[in-house]
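Sample entry (252 residues):
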Amino acid sequence: MAAKTIHPTNPAGYLVWKNVYITNTSNYVPDLNTLMQSRPAAVFTDEMPQILILHTHGSEAYTMPEGQEYAASGESRTLDTEYNVVRVGDEIASVFEEHGISVLHDRTLYDAAGYNDAYDRADDAIQAYLQKYPSIHFVLDIHRDAIEDSAGTSYKVISQVDGKNAAQLSIVVGTDGSGAPHDHWEENLKLAVLLQQHLTERYPTLMRPMYLRNSRYNQHTAPGALLLEVGAAGNDPKEALLAGQVFARGMA
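Predicted structure, serialized as tokens:
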């Protein structure tokens, strides 16, 4: 499997704050220097649970070693939660709990009944969870990316973490640019930028550029809502699990 590390150093074409590079395809050009002068609205409290983890596209899977292939439900997808992004969510939840952070992990495969309307089903679930558990201030939607070159060659994206290959991570932040209401998207962005800067200081190549987009990706549900891409279809599960561990430790 072809591997690459995506790590821009030239600010041309990006929004930049300290070591954070943002690919902006939204209708907005936020003033990051002004935005980052205050802390994010979402904070940890002593109430439980504190974080909701879910997977809008839970069947997204990775590349298994030869002889360990999963039962596929589509291209680079499986309903087996031992081999898709739900397993990464398990790992992230475990690390949070080791740090004393209470987590609710929804392992539902919201794309099993159809990919295109998975966000609608996930939105309904998030709203129900937040009504039942008002202590939740952080909502993490864990995905994985798919990266190919012009010839259709699939890549895995890697970063060195303590001498081991970890999948690179990418945070996606939505806005109200699509016309759907989302009045606190800048709070989501502030959290994402602060978190990415913190992780980058320890692991300079762990984070791919962040994405700021017009679609809201259900991030209107909470001021601490983020979409996290853990690696790509070409990464193997061990690389994705290590990346999930590092992310959760950094956020904790």
